[in-house]
Amino acid sequence: MMLEELERRNYAQTTIDCYIQTIEDFARYFRRPPDQLTPEHIRDTKRICSVRKASPSTVTQRLAALRFFYTRTIKKPGAWPIPVSEENATPAQNLEPGRVAHLIDCSQTQFHRMVLMTV
Asked: For residues 98-117, b (16+ Cβ closer than 10 Å) or e, as one string?
């Protein structure tokens, strides 16, 4: 069902492969069909990713796969109470004013210069 839903929504093949693999891993790890797993299992998956020091993008992608499965495929009410947390986000780096000016001066086109000045 999930594969059909992903294809119907025109997801990229690499995304489809990743999402399917994530759901298979999820079910295999807990030794249950994925539709029988609870929000507590999803929270455990987040903790496991943290312990294994998975990159923020990996955690986000795995949670997106699980969210898609529960909200779009099986449409299980209340199965996705887990918000995507900011704990895995990388903190923004504050640049010194001189460094910002240097970046703007190094821009090669007016467009790049404009973009850097508005960000």
From this structure: eeeeeeeeeeeeeeeeeeee
Q: 40-56: per-residue pLDDT in tens?
A: 877 787 777 767 777 88
**Residue 92, burial from CB neighbour count under 10 angstroms (0-12, 13-18, 19+):** exposed
Domains, in order of start, for the chain: 2-73 (1.10.150.130), 94-119 (no CATH)
Take residue 48 and report the two structure tokens written for it. Answer: 């496991």
- Residue among 46, 16, 22, 50 nearest 34 (CA): 22
- The model carries a pTM of 0.61
Alpha-carbon distances, residue 28 vs 5, 46, 50, 63 (angstroms) = 22, 16, 19, 16
**Element of type H or E holding 104:** helix 97-106
